[in-house]
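Title: Prediction job returns without error message
Component: structure pipeline
Severity: low
Priority: P3
Assignee: unassigned

Description:
Job completed but the reporter wants confirmation the result is attached to the right record. Sequence as submitted:
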Amino acid sequence: MKKSATGRAENRVRRGIFSKAPAYCPNAAKAAIVLAVILSLTHFSCKGSGNAIPAWKEDPIVPGHSAALLFIGDRYGSALLAIGEPDQTREEGKVHSAYYDRLEPSRRHGPAEWSLVVVLRDDGDGTLDGEDVVVSLEVSGDYQGRTPEDLGLGSTGEEIEARLGPCEATSTSLTEEGEELRLLSYPTRGIDFLVSPTKGAVTIIVTPPGGLNPILEESPIPAATDPFGPYGREPVLPGHSMAGITLGEELSSVRQKLGEPGSWGNTGEGLLYLAYTQGHGPWRLALYLEDSDGSGKPSAPDRVVSICVREPYAGKTKGGVGIGSSRSQVISEFGRADQEYRSPHRGEETIFLEYHHRGIVFAINAMSGLVVEMDVTNPVPR
């Protein structure tokens, strides 16, 4: 295993599995904390300043999962905490929309009219409220985040298909000015690109893996599935294994145990991720693998370098710590963390306790004081 790739595997995303905040390199972690504080201050102090870019406009785009500091499957209440109140909302039966940062000229209507459109599925009461679920994120304008393949606003149709392969579906539409726009859809990946022949991609749409239509056709809350199979109560062994998966295990073995993931992708840093969901919601089990052959997709030589779990995982450490345990229980078993800091996580303030010499990280909700995520990785020697 290449040392550089292993190091990058341990630089996990603190918003979920896709953050770029280093988890195990002390100097890099300190730098990431400073960056997080700067971004946080930018988000809360610069709205309406007309100069600084809000933090949500710089967030990476993760197909099938997230953009603009929001996750597919988030509740609207979490969205409000993460990026604030929208400029405009619209209630349309079982689908609602929240609009942020209208683009100039103000008379523009249709595609790319807003910097961000959050599409939500109604929770059954017919009104937009905090319990509605995020099912699509549309970014336009000066949004700067890019995908792991380095695609973003302005990318041409040729660039998109060269890096993602031929689109799975396509359609065309005309703007008010008569320009023909082409929609390049990749529903299995969870991303669409609305492309202008002169400007490149003018809107990027993140949807659940499998596309938006299936989730809108279901009942308000999707049926749950078990992302852990028979391994939902396996013990948590820091620096070694969790959820029935062992660090260093080959992809073929993972597939035999858990089947195919809900989605997969590459981080652009020599790593691949497999995300196992519960219904169409956000990931519950995520595995990082080293892209051993450099193919950019899961293949036989790839091996697991990080295991991440959320509720409803019921496995526990030797001392009884698991999802739902208190911060005091974590410290009682593991002692003082090698690194501790706060950072926004899925729209909520979260405390991270990193035991990188033991090979485990705990994410604790700052309000409840309870563990919401556990990550097992290769230990870093002292």
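Comment from assignee: result matches the submitted record. Residues 3-25+223-377 form one domain.
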